[in-house]
Amino acid sequence: xxxxxxxxxxxxxxxxxxxxxxxxxxxxxxxxxxxxxxxxxxxxxxxxxxxxxxxxxxxxxxxxxxxxxxxxxxxxxxxxxxxxxxxxxxxxxxxxxxxxxxxxxxxxxxxxxxxxxxxxxxxxxxxxxxxxxxxxxxxxxxxxxxxxxxxxxxxxxxxxxxxxxxxxxxxxxxxxxxxxxxxxxxxxxxxxxxxxxxxxxxxxxxxxxxxxxxxxxxxxxxxxxxxxxxxxxxxxxxxxxxxxxxxxxxxxx
Amino acid sequence: xxxxxxxxxxxxxxxxxxxxxxxxxxxxxxxxxxxxxxxxxxxxxxxxxxxxxxxxxxxxxxxxxxxxxxxxxxxxxxxxxxxxxxxxxxxxxxxxxxxxxxxxxxxxxxxxxxxxxxxxxxxxxxxxxxxxxxxxxxxxxxxxxxxxxxxxxxxxxxxxxxxxxxxxxxxxxxxxxxxxxxxxxxxxxxxxxxxxxxxxxxxxxxxxxxxxxxxxxxxxxxxxxxxxxxxxxxxxxxxxxxxxxxxxxxxxxxxxxxxxxxxxxxxxxxxxxxxxx
Amino acid sequence: xxxxxxxxxxxxxxxxxxxxxxxxxxxxxxxxxxxxxxxxxxxxxxxxxxxxxxxxxxxxxxxxxxxxxxxxxxxxxxxxxxxxxxxxxxxxxxxxxxxxxxxxxxxxxxxxxxxxxxxxxxxxxxxxxxxxxxxxxxxxxxxxxxxxxxxxxxxxxxxxxxxxxxxxxxxxxxxxxxxxxxxxxxxxxxxxxxxxxxxxxxxxxxxxxxxxxxxxxxxxxxxxxxxxxxxxxxxxxxxxxxxxxxxxxxxxxxxxxxxxxxxxxxxxxxxxxxxxxxxxxx
Lengths: 253, 277, 282
Fold this sequence. Notes:
A: 253 residues; mainly alpha; MetI-like fold; B: 277 residues; six-stranded mixed beta sheet; 8 helices
C-alpha cells in the first residue's frame, strides 16, 4: 500500500510532466498552434480510446510485441553466451573479437534493407534485424563482465572441488551478469528503435506501420495516440526490466 | 591435547620424517602480457611437516603469494616440483583449502550458501551438508548472519565466512594468503587469536603468507624468510613460544625474536622498494 | 571497441595469456593474424557468392560490390551521400552535446532545474523517440531541419544523464580545496566541475555519437532524400541489392572511423585520467 506522503512526493516529482501535457492542451484549445499539426490532448485521448477497442490495434500491437520479444530474446541468449564464451575460451576470443570489433560500430539501422532483402517484409525479417542489431551490446557486456570475474573467485571454486564447467556456471556467469544485464538494457532500447522504424519503413503490420498508415491518411489524432502508446510501451518495458534486473542483482546491495 | 601441541612445536625443525609438502628446486618466471618476463621465484626448496604451522614472510612482491598459488595448483609449475603426500601437484583440489586476502566470497551467495558451496561438490546427503555448514558458521562466530550477503558484512566477518567455507571441506592443508592483511589492527589481532584457537582444536598443516613480522612470530612454529625479487628462502627460524600466555607479545624473548627477524626482512624490504623505483 | 582488446584486465580464464603463441607471431605478423577472421569472412563471402548456392540478389559477390562503390566514388554519388549523412548526424550530435552538457550542468547545480527536468529526462530516455518522427515531419517538413532535430532529440538524453552523473561524482574534497584556494563560482564551473566531470561526459558523448548515426540513417530511410540511408532505401525499393550492400560497406566504414576518432580524442583529451576506458554503447 502506498502511503499518503510517498504518493504526494511521487505526484510532486512528476508534476513537470503534467505541466507539459497541460501546456500542450492549452496550446491547441486556445489555437496558439494549429490543431492540424497539434491536435488537442482530449481528442488524442478519445481517438486513442476508440482505437484500443478495435481488433486492428491489438493485432498490430501483438505483432510488434512478438517481433521485438523474439528478436530481443535471441539477442540476449545468443549474444550473452557468445560474450561469456569469448572470455572463457581463448580460441573463440581470437576468432570472434575482430569480427565483433568490425561489426560493433556499424549503425544498426543499415541492416533494415538487408534483412528485408533476405527475408521480406514479415516477422522473420524484423526478428532477424532485432537479433543482429541488439546482439553486440549484450555480447560486449557479457564479455567484459566475464573477463572481470575475479581470479580468486575462480580459484576458490576450483579449490572447493568445482569442475571447470561448474566454475563457468557458478562463478563466471554470475560475475558477468551485472554488465550483461546492462548491455541487455541498451539492447532493449535499441530493439524498440529498430522495431518501430523498420515497421514504419518496410512493413504491412505492427505499431510502427500503424503510425505511418494513420499519418499518411491524415488521421493525426489517432496517429498521436499510437505514438503515445509506443512511448508508454517503451517506458514501461524499461521499468519492468529495471525491476527484474534489480531483483536478479539484489545481492549487490 | 595442549601438551601434544607443545610437543609438535618443540619438534619444530625436524619433520623430514613426517614431511607432507616437499618443494624441490622450484623456480617461476612471471610473463606479463606486455613487458619483460620477471623471475619471481628462484630455486626454492622447502619441506613442511604434517600439521605444522609455517609462515612465509617477505617484502611485497617477493613471490611468496606466487609460491602459495603454485602450491594450490592455480599456477602451473615450470621448473622444479611440488609434491603433497608424495603426489605431484597438478591442479587445484579440495585437499588444499585456500583463504585469500580479499576474502573471495561469492558475492551473489549468502553466508550459508558460500559455506555450503564446497560441501555441495562432495557427495554428502543434504542434511549432512547443512549440519556441517552450520557447525562451521557457529565455529567462526557468524551465527545469526547465515542469510546475509557478503556485501552486508564487515571485513572481519567476511574473512570469518571465507575461513568457515574453507574449513568446512576439511582440507588437510590450509593455504592462507595474507588473510588478515585487509583488516584493521584490532580485528586482525582478534582473528589471529581465533585462528590459533581453531588450529589448536583441529590442527592442520597451515602455510601462512604475510609481510607482518609480528604476525608471523605470533602464529607460526616456523618462519621462512624470503628475499626480495627474485624470491629465495633466506632463512628458516624455529619458534617455540607458549601461545597460551596472554602476555606473550610483551615478553622479552618474543620481542627479541621479532627484532631479529625484522632485521632479516628490513634489508629485503629496502631492496624491494629500490627495485620498484 | 569497448574495452574488448585491452590487455591487463583480470582473466576469467584459468589459461595464461602469454607465452602460448609462437614468438614470430607476437613480434611481426600479429596485426595480420589478429584480423585473419575478418579476412576469412570476406573470402568466404566471395566464395559463397560465386558458388551459386545463393542468388546474386541475396548476396552479390564482394568484387561487384566494390566495383559499384568504385563507380559511385567516381560519379561523386558516394562522397555526396556520405557527406550528407555525416553532416546531419554531426549537426544533430553537436547540438545535442552543447544543449545536453548545458542542461546537465544546470540540473546538477540548480534544484529547480533538477526538479523540472528530472522526470522529463527519466521518462524521455527509455521511450523510443523515433516513433515521433511523423510528428516532427508534420511540424518541420521533410528536409534537414526535421532530420537534424530528430537526431538531436535522440542523442541529448545520454549526454544530459552523463553530465549529471559526472558532476555529482566530483569528489567533495576537490570542490572544498578549490573553494579554500579562493575559486569563484564561475571558475568553479569552468576550471573544476567541467574538467572533473569530463570523463563521464565524454562517455555520454561516446554513447551518443553512434545513436546519431543510427537515427540519421533511419530518418533518411523513412523520409527519403540523399544520404547513405536514403540511397540504400532507394536501392532496396528498386531491388538493386548491389546498392544496398555498397551502402552497408559505406556506412560501416563511417561508423568505424567515427567510433575510432572519438576514442582517439578521448585518449588525447583525458590523458590525465588513468582508466580512460571506452564505454559500452550501441
